[in-house]
Amino acid sequence: MAQILWLQWLLKMLVVLVLVFAACGPFVICPSKAQRPALLQWSLIVRCTLKGIPGASVEHNTFCVSAHFRNCAADRWHEVVSAVEHAIEGNEQLRVTRGRKVLEVRPKVRCS
To answer: Is the pTM of this model over 0.85?
Structure first.
């Protein structure tokens, strides 16, 4: 029974991958060498900016840079969002996605 459930799950995941591939074509999940300096520069700028906001933190991941505000006071999280948006302003290589009390800056990846 467990093998059948596992095979059904695997089949569903394959269908999802085929649909994503059909919609976007080949896609890249990690930043290219050209995009890595922009991520590093952005993380340094925002790390310095967020130093003055207690509870805010910056995490440089492999695929993105995360600005966390889950430990900020309720009246200060807007400052984190403003700092992130201001730091990325005018940078055409990066985009911001929002999560639960976190902003992630990722390289823009073109779907064909």
So the answer is: no
What's the one-letter identity of residue 27? Answer: F
Give the H/E segment covering residue 60: strand 57-60
Q: pLDDT by residue for the chain (112 residues), tens digit each?
A: 667 777 777 677 766 665 555 555 555 455 566 677 777 888 888 888 888 889 999 988 877 889 999 999 989 889 999 988 888 888 787 888 888 899 988 887 665 4
Phi, psi dihedrals of residue 43, rounded to the nearest 5°: -65, -35
Non-local (6+) Cβ contacts of 60 within 8 A are: 39, 40, 43
Using CB atoms within 10 A of its CB, is residue 35 exposed (0-12), middle (13-18) or buried (19+)? middle
In sign, the C-alpha dihedral spanning 64, 47, 45, 91 is positive
